[in-house]
C-alpha cells in the first residue's frame, strides 16, 4: 500500500529553444501516456506556462523514490531527455525535487 | 462522488482510492488530479527571508486547511524545495471564478499580507498554467 509520506513529487521546468515548441509538446504528450502507465506513477501533468512563452511545467508524483528512479531510467524517459538536449535551453529540464509539508 | 474522489485523492487522504488508482490499468485509472480544461492551475513559489523560514511553512499549513475547504478548490499541495529553501505550492481551482474567490477570500488576503515582510519580493511568485493534455 503506498504511503503518502513516501511520495516523491517533482516539478520539471522546460524552456524550449526557438522553433522547438511543437516538438516538445508532442514529446510531452507521448511521454505522458507512457509515464501514466508506470505502476509507480501517481500523476503526471504537463502544462504550458501562460506567464512565460516557450516554457513548460510538468507536475509529477511517484509512489516513492524507487518508482521515481525507475521512471528516470525508463528508455522512453531517456529518449525524451535526449531530445531535450537539442530542443531545450540548457539541454535539459530543470527538475525541482520537493517534499510535502503537510 | 467523482468530485469527492478527486478532492480526497489530491489531498492524499483517500488511501483506498489511491491504491486502486495505482494498481488499476492506466487506461482505467483516473488521474489523481482531474483533467479538465476549465480548471485553473497555478504554481506559487515563495522564498522566505531566513528569519521567517519556519513561520512561512506554518502559515502555509494553516492556509492549506482553509483553501481546501473552498468549494471551488480541487487541489492545494504545499511543498518544500530543500535545494533553495523555497516553498512551492501546486494549486488547482474549478474555474476562473473559483480562483478569483480564492484570491479575494479573507484567509488568502491575510496570508498575502503576512508575506509582505516575510518573503523575498514581499509576495509569492505565481505562474499560471494551461494543461496541454
From TrEMBL, chain A:
SUPFAM superfamilies from the UniProt entry: Dimeric alpha+beta barrel
UniProtKB keywords: Monooxygenase, Oxidoreductase
Coiled-coil ranges (or none): none
Annotated Gene3D superfamilies: 3.30.70.100
Family annotation (Pfam families): ABM (PF03992)
InterPro entries according to UniProt: ABM_dom, AI-2_Isomerase_LsrG, Dimeric_a/b-barrel
Name this polypeptide is given: Quinol monooxygenase YgiN
Organism field: Zymomonas mobilis
TrEMBL record, chain B:
Species this protein is from: Zymomonas mobilis
Location of the ABM domain: 40-133
Gene Ontology molecular functions: monooxygenase activity
InterPro entries for the chain: ABM_dom, Dimeric_a/b-barrel
Pfam families tied to this protein: ABM
UniProt protein name: Quinol monooxygenase YgiN
Signal sequence region: 1-28
Keywords associated with the record: Monooxygenase, Oxidoreductase, Signal
Keyword Signal set for record: yes
Keyword Transferase on entry: no
